Amino acid sequence: MSSLLKNRLQEERKQWRKDHPYGFFAKPEKSADGSLNLQSWTAGVPGKDNTIWENATYPLTITFPNDFPSKPPKVRLPAGFYHPNVYPSGTICLSILNEDQDWRPGINLKQILLGVQELLDTPNPDSPAQEPAWRAFGKDRALYEKKVIEQAKKYAKAG
Amino acid sequence: MSRVEGLKCVLGDDTYRKIRNAKVLLVGAGGIGCELLKDLILLGYSEVHVVDLDTIDLSNLNRQFLFRHKDIKQPKASTAVNAVQSFNFFKTKLVPYQASIYETDLFPMSWFEQFDLIFNALDNIQARSYINKVALLLNKTVMESGTTGTNGQAQPTFPYHTECYDCLHRETPKTFPVCTIRSTPSQPVHCIHWAKSFLFTSLFSEDDEPVVQPEGKDTGELGTDNQQEIANLISENNELVELKRSIASEDFVDKVIAKVFTKDIENLLKISDLWKTRKQPTPLEYNNQIKEKVLKISKEEIGTGQREWTLEQNLKVFIDSTLALQKRIAIEKEIEFDKDDEDTLNFVASATNIRSHIFSIPLKAKFDIKSIAGNIIPAIATTNAIIAGFSALLSLKQFDESYENRIQNSKAVFTVSNSDKFVSPSMLQSPNPKCATCSAVRGVAHFDTSKTLNDLLGALQSTYGLDEEISLSLGSNLLYDIDFDDNVEKTLKEMGIVDGVLLNVADETDKYQSVKGGDLKLPDIKMAEKPPVEEKEENDQDDEEDGVELINDNDDDLLIVDVKEATSPDKRKAKAQDYDDTHVTKKPKTDSEIEIVE
């Protein structure tokens, strides 16, 4: 593992620890020996208020590859997540997470998670990643909203 | 005049005396290594240890002049050492090792300690980076060298005083998205990839396991979100696995041609979205008439592969090599692509060209395909000799009593073929302050691993005047920071801080900057307060350029190396802050990470 990766991940942890947006969480996963694996994180992104995504926190897994930050991290929602730009596997189709598009080594965790939050309510109909949500979003908005609200209940904030 | 007198004349008495007592390490006995070994013994170095993992290959002989045809398959290190004995005029002691330099049982840190200088004659980034880290830990000067074709450079590196190997960011090798390789190639190299890594591997080297899960692969790798295309890729794959099962059948080669060059292309054409902006491919037309014509082509007509083949000639080579591989696989079970294995190279070269033809991409001669598919970096004996020569000459500057003078008098040397001057010297650059590798302060620490993490924290705080806001990590595993104190009661051993690990201690208050390091004894490292900086404005998405800043911002690290486990009862009583820097050894992780072992 390169020093660059190690330093950068420490920096991500430090930055996040010191400052992160309200309602979000992000923490590295615990290894068997009790240490935290900085290459593998879980995170929660709150749906924006006054949208059909509100009152829920959507869980993410973030995996930083060995060549991060040259390559972007892999960010996933749960498999089967209902959103036009989320693949059936949960992989998110977002330009800032794509090496060939808008990924830059300077993009940090906070920007990624804010990007995902933004994407939730503003899907990009031009890059469909799954059939059901994409079709409903374009052709049957009522059904789409119903499904999204159902899903929000599933990930409703505790309490 | 005797040789000794001659050498004294050239070097001067002082340097002569010192060089006759100098012990150096040469890492690599290949193109540059052979040249350098010759140079070093002719300069009268007292002792040269040569490390090379490799054995000699036919393709080495054109430039690695210490090797002969009879030496093929022999270890490079010992063969080189034996070869130079005939002109070892100054009785240099030579010690060869056929081993990987990462081998810590063989090459512990204490072993590196014995050398006055390290000469790199390596051919890869990983090993150079490893030696760089060793040099930073032990404060050794490294004579770095490398060539590509007629370009080359020789450069001394002085830890913490001049640019280290990691100070310059290197591009990661370009990878191609799966869809470019499989569905929409536009360059010869895409077709080479397809022929070598997909077609050849699927047919001759892989187990026939089911391939590509539609959802398991994420889009970043596939490079497409066209569901039809993805579905097509998968069925293409499965059919190939199916085809592989019939590898023993007589009409195997006809089936392969019909599938990969005709049917697969026809299927691709059905995905009309792909061809809106691209030129459509043309499926190969292959019938009995063409087949007859192809089979009549003679060996002479094919030639040695220096010039491009016609489509028919490519088909002939494809058929012949497939038949040959088909026969071999019955015995060998699995065949790996090897640029020096004619059957595999013929298969890949002809498959590449047939595919290129289909996609209207220029065809390439087998010779060119060989150099791309085999990842051959052109190596020129003359450049190697020049660069090795400079590396050896620059080493003479390293015998000055004053370390400052050594740095002042050292230059980097570059050769560039397309300028007026073939050889140009260059001042050594200062270390990149943002270098993630050499901006950290390193040292060797020894302590009792039955103590708790809390004890270590206390020791670090009292020794360096740090406050609670520090983090401890091993590689990418975080052991402690101010918001994560779950482990403080655990022993160091439980947390994996054992013999030889590399522990990273980072101040997170942003109060400190590292001082010019290079000293191994931790207690000597002093922290200087950072000069006040203007608060940086925080802005979000549009803050692209600033990112690099963030990466390397922690110039306040301490790297403590070699946490020594106390073994004797005396040592057990020793307090955590009792450091000494005796013997250190080193163990690699899978990547280039360094661990230090006692």
TrEMBL record, chain A:
Location(s), subcellular: Nucleus
Respond yes or no to whether keyword Nucleus is given for this record.
yes
Please state which protein family the record places this protein in.
Belongs to the ubiquitin-conjugating enzyme family.
Entry annotated with the keyword Nucleotidyltransferase: no
Active site (record annotation): C93 (glycyl thioester intermediate)
The pathway it acts in is: Protein modification; protein sumoylation
* Protein name, UniProt field: SUMO-conjugating enzyme UBC9
Q: Which stretches are annotated as coiled coil?
A: none
- The superkingdom of the source organism is Eukaryota
Provide the GO biological process annotations. protein sumoylation
SUPFAM superfamilies attached to this UniProt entry: UBC-like (SSF54495)
CC terms in the record's Gene Ontology section: chromosome; nucleus
What's the source species for this entry?
A: Cyberlindnera jadinii (strain ATCC 18201 / CBS 1600 / BCRC 20928 / JCM 3617 / NBRC 0987 / NRRL Y-1542)
The UBC core domain sits at 4-157
Q: A Gene Ontology MF term for this entry?
A: SUMO transferase activity
**Which residues does UniProt assign to the signal peptide?**
none
Gene3D superfamilies linked? Ubiquitin Conjugating Enzyme
Under PROSITE patterns, the record lists:
UBC_1 (PS00183), UBC_2 (PS50127)
From TrEMBL, chain B:
Q: The THIF-type NAD/FAD binding fold domain covers which part of the protein?
A: 11-436
In which residue ranges is the amino acid composition biased (Acidic residues)?
A: 535-559
Gene Ontology CC entries for this record: cytoplasm; SUMO activating enzyme complex
Per UniProt, Zn(2+) binds at C164, C167, C435, C438
Q: Name a single GO biological process.
A: protein sumoylation
User: GO molecular-function annotation terms?
Assistant: ATP binding; metal ion binding; SUMO activating enzyme activity
User: Which keywords does this Swiss-Prot/TrEMBL entry list?
Assistant: ATP-binding, Metal-binding, Nucleotide-binding, Ubl conjugation pathway, Zinc
Where along the chain is composition biased (Basic and acidic residues)? 523-534, 562-592
Q: Which Pfam families match?
A: ThiF (PF00899)
| UniProt-annotated binding residues for ATP | 28-33, 52, 60-63, 76, 100-101, 123-128
Question: Which catalytic residues are annotated?
Answer: C179 (glycyl thioester intermediate)
Where is region (Disordered) located? 523-598
Membership in a protein family: Belongs to the ubiquitin-activating E1 family.
Q: Give the record's subunit note.
A: Heterodimer.
Recorded protein name is Ubiquitin-activating enzyme E1-like
Q: Which organism is it from?
A: Cyberlindnera jadinii (strain ATCC 18201 / CBS 1600 / BCRC 20928 / JCM 3617 / NBRC 0987 / NRRL Y-1542) (Torula yeast)
